[in-house]
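User: Can you help me understand a structure? I only have the sequence.
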Amino acid sequence: MKLTFIGANHEVTGSCHYLEVGKTKVLVDCGMEQGNNPYQNAELPVGYNEIDYVLLTHAHIDHAGMLPWIYARGFKGRIITTYATEDLCSIMLIDSAHIQEMEAEWKNRKAKRAGRMEVEPLYTQEDAEGVLELFEGVAYGQVFKVNENLTLRFTDVGHLLGSASIEVWATENGITKKIVFSGDIGNKNKPLIRNPQYIDEADYVVMECTYGNRRHKQGVSHIPQLASIIQRTLDRGGNVVIPAFAVGRTQELLYMIRHIKEEGLVTGHPNFDVYVDSPLAVEATHVFKMNMTECYDEETKALVERGINPIDFPGLKLSVSSEESKNINFDPSPKVIISASGMCDAGRIRHHLKHNLWRPECCVVFAGYQAEGTLGRLLTDGASDVKLFGEEIQVKAEIVQLEGISGHADKDGLLAWLLAFKKHPSYVFTVHGDEENCTAFTSVLTDQLGYEARAPYSGSQFDLAKGCWIKLTEPVLVDRQTAARRKATGVYTRLVEAGQQLMEVIRRNQEGANKDLIRFTEQIQALCEKWDR
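Assistant: Let's start by predicting it. Here is the structure, written out as tokens:
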């Protein structure tokens, strides 16, 4: 009875844990790494064709995104998850495969021109369609026996529609141990979905600590704030542009706008139009509508019982085709536009920013965290101009960030979830947090609260029957090839492109006046001195 840590160890993405109970081999989550994770993940100790089950906590790509990849490499077992997660994966994995194929096609066009070898997509839509055949949905709260080694229950953890903590009763040689995998623990009092449901008993707990060293801003009411933004923007004849993640955040915004419209919190603009311009968001919105009874909180269920769709209202327009998307900005009437991606680094939102950023009557509203180096972060940090589709765009629109919106529990929320256990588990394993957060949160558990706890590195292995470590690994930094690949898909690319743009500017100024060239040279040298460290 062994637990091996594979992904999201001292890192936030790529969640994956390997559980071996008797002859049964299980993965808990199979997520894609996103961003520049610093550590190399250990190899799975068995072949993918040997895995019997994947237990999936929720549909986000950093937990589910490698399922088509392992399918293409021999996995043909069962994927057990909640009904809503199954529904969301049916659109998100296909969308992810489409992105992989499009990126490979773009890279290969460049490679062909440069005489380099072509690359294969990480996986294909055919792989995604194949793995979706292996899904098996279950209801929240249902205790069921999978085989002689495993009994399971999925408990709503309030992070995303369908998200769950997974209780696993593992039996081997007459010994039974209960392991709880937290999944991503949700923030309280979110629109639509329930607060995290607590579990009161476990021998071992594997828990996330994304915000293990952070507290969210409290007492913020987003509906009045959003209503005020919409009111003043429409009053001056502008558009409200909201970059939002297609699954989860978009539906929360629709819930808030429905409330704003129903309560008449925006006046003088009857039935103002609200566009959702993202094919994935449109499909996800339909999935939210399909899972009202199973996943919604009591307030939202009461709306449904009154015949009110909580994420639908007069003036809502769902845009799917490219032509529909283009026409949004040809319509001169003031409106609200919700579009992906949430950090503005891809997708249709960039077209809407191109058409609206330069207009002082418009407003761009950020409803989520903006990572360092993204276009969204540049705008929230006060950039005076940005480059979109090769064109310099002045930032004249009002830029607003809604504070305190998060799908993850903060430090207090994480502790509340853990302290709900009636007695201390024998051991707590902290995962899904960066170096700072998992280290700080683990220290709180051990030094202040008296838990046996550790944040293991990838490849570490624990004997659940004996309650001891089989192997504790040291961190392995990614090799140069992997680091280069990650840089090529991340923020580093923006830096390289900026450097190339600078060289073009230098060439165009070859015939410039000497005094201008001297000043330009001094500015570049000052910049180099600042960053040459």
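Now, to help you interpret it: The chain has three domains: 2-215+407-471, 222-401, 490-531. The CA atoms of residues 29 and 56 lie 5 Å apart. Let me know which part you'd like to focus on.
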